[in-house]
TrEMBL record:
It is a multi-pass membrane protein. PANTHER family: PLASTIDAL GLYCOLATE_GLYCERATE TRANSLOCATOR 1, CHLOROPLASTIC (PTHR30249:SF0), PUTATIVE SEROTONIN TRANSPORTER (PTHR30249). The chain crosses the membrane at residues 6-25, 37-55, 61-81, 90-112, 146-169, 204-224. Coiled coil: none annotated. InterPro entries: CidB/LrgB (IPR007300). It is found in: Membrane. Its main location: membrane. GO terms for cellular component: membrane. The keyword Nucleotide-binding does not apply. The keyword Membrane applies. This is TIGR00659 family protein. It comes from Anaeromicropila populeti.
Length: 225
């Protein structure tokens, strides 16, 4: 059993199967609460725990999938290219929104960690939680944080943003697709952007732009921590 699960193929197949299951449940329920990524993570945890499979075994294949994270993020550039005229028209509002969103995210984490007396290592691990994983891990390392904690925070933030984004857009009656896309991309990176694309092409493009802008801004703001 151990030799079977230690194969990279096991982690890859389990990840794909779990995500397909999550996607099927999402299509069937049509509920933002049944997020495919959240379902996949829960399913994988249940399988590993139930069959006493070491996490290291799963990571043999999981780490191979992680290699595609950065290329998958850059693919969003195509939707950005298609909406380049809109970006030129709204560049200043989008840039300002990304800056305020990034500053609010990092500042709120810093203040909350200070309020709850968390140590600096954990604080610096959580500060870059709202940007895409490759950038977040690098920022965390530069701040002497723990990248593994950062990854967990990034994933949780993305899932939360993906689940709540459609609801919040309706609650606050955000009619402008540029504003909606910028907000989603700034606070919940690529996972949120996948939901923004479902809301509309402009929302998806602006969310993809916000990922890049917010990443750059976060790197620069991290110099002051």
């Amino acid at each position: 059993m151990n030799s079977l699960t230690a194969s990279p193929l096991f982690g890859i197949l389990l990840s794909i199967s779990a995500f397909l299951l999550g996607s099927a449940l999402n299509r069937k329920t049509k509920s933002p609460l049944v997020n495919p990524l959240l379902v996949a993570i829960s399913f994988i945890i249940i399988i590993l725990h139930s069959f006493h499979i070491p996490l290291e075994n799963y990571q043999q294949g999981g780490n191979m999938i992680s290699l595609f994270l950065a290329p998958a993020t850059t693919v969003l550039g195509y939707s950005v290219y298609k909406q380049i005229e809109i970006l030129k028209k709204y560049f200043i509002p989008v840039a300002a929104g990304c800056f305020v969103g990034s500053l609010t995210s990092m500042g709120s984490i810093y203040l909350l960690c200070h309020l709850f007396h968390l140590d600096s290592t954990l604080t610096f691990s959580l500060i870059p939680k709202s940007v895409t994983t490759p950038i977040a891990m690098e920022v965390s390392s530069q701040l002497s944080g723990i990248p593994s904690i950062t990854v967990a925070a990034v994933v949780a933030t993305g899932i939360l943003g993906s689940v709540t984004a459609p609801i919040l857009v309706k609650i606050f009656r955000i009619q402008n697709p540029v504003a909606a896309g910028t907000a989603i991309g700034t606070c919940s990176h690529a996972v949120g952007t996948s939901k923004a694309i479902e809301l509309g092409e402009i929302q998806g493009a602006m969310s993809g732009i916000a990922i890049g802008m917010s990443g750059i801004i976060t790197v620069l703001l991290a110099l002051f921590f």
